[in-house]
Amino acid sequence: MLAKLSLSPSRIRGQWYDGASSMRGHINGLRTLILQENPSAHYVYCFAHQLQLTLVGVADGHPHIKGFLELVNLILNVIESSYKRRDEYRTRQSEKVEEALRMGELMTGKGLNQELGLQRPSDGHWGSHFKTFVNLIVMFAPIVDVLDALATDTDSDDNARGQAILDGIQTYDFAFLLHLMKLVLGITNALSQALQRRDQDIVNALSLLGTTKKQLQRTRDYGWDALIDNVKSFCVKHDIEIPNMEDFAPLRARGKSKRRLSSVTNEHYYRVDVFYSILDM
């Protein structure tokens, strides 16, 4: 392409790619091939892509997030794998959008509500995860309706899987993690968008990173009550049982022996073992 446009590699001053081996590779990557032609073509690893890979690494290392993401992927697989279920979801989605517009829960505008479709998130682009979580919250009722129809369809081979997913998402655990991950990725997504600006440099990037870390710390220090209120409103709206925070945490949630379980409340589990733990990571 450079030759076709009569552009000389000797005039290249910078390269900016993601971490794919075909681009960044030390032997045959595009970066290396250009550096062979022009050693002055300095390479910068895309700031935003580094952020995405860091978030992926954190998610894979935290059992709560990893299990939550696996369940989200199951939801998308079940709905998107069938034309019938996809059409049913879109029909119910349209009804939900019309209802939300009437109640003033959504804004009207060209292309605004096209974002409410379920899309498969990409590990290399965590902004897509943020959109998926937002849409799961807004479109939770249509999703439950589609899964309920699947679970009660005795002619479908996927009815048992539909019931298992339905049981998994209609829990306080899922609602809590859904809102928590939306909250966290809402903060990091703003950083990701800023890092993709054309005029970004390493000094500004470090400053933005510091600002984001402060936002996460403020969320850790002062965001618990607001998060709990949002989760409670969501659960009430969708008839999800809310546990008594003063009760002892279930054994399945703690993964500890009964001897250790006796002194741990639900509030300690959700606040310390999940909320603080995920924000700290």
Helix content: 55-70%
Poorly predicted runs: 110-115
Helix count from the secondary structure assignment: 14
Rg from alpha-carbon coordinates? 23 Å
Give the distance, in angstroms, between the N- and C-terminal Cα atoms: 43 Å
Beta strands, count: 2
Give me the strand/helix succession: EHHEHHHHHHHHHHHH
Number of domains: 2
What structural category arises from helix and sheet content?
mainly alpha
Main sheet specs: 2 strands, parallel
Mean pLDDT value:
82
3D shape: globular
The share of residues in extended strands comes to under 5%
Strand order of the largest sheet: 1-2
What does this protein look like?
65% of the residues lie in helices and 3% in strands. The chain has helices at 21-24, 30-37, 47-61, 63-80, 83-102, 126-138, 140-151, 159-169, 172-195, 202-222, 224-237, 251-254, 258-261, 266-280; strands at 14-17, 42-45. Strands 1-2 form a two-stranded parallel ribbon. Helix 5 packs antiparallel against helix 7 and helix 9 packs antiparallel against helix 10. The longest helix has 24 residues, at 172-195.
Please tag this protein with its features.
281 residues, 2 domains, two-stranded parallel ribbon
Topology:
Elements: E1 14-17, H1 21-24, H2 30-37, E2 42-45, H3 47-61, H4 63-80, H5 83-102, H6 126-138, H7 140-151, H8 159-169, H9 172-195, H10 202-222, H11 224-237, H12 251-254, H13 258-261, H14 266-280
Parallel strand pairs: 1-2
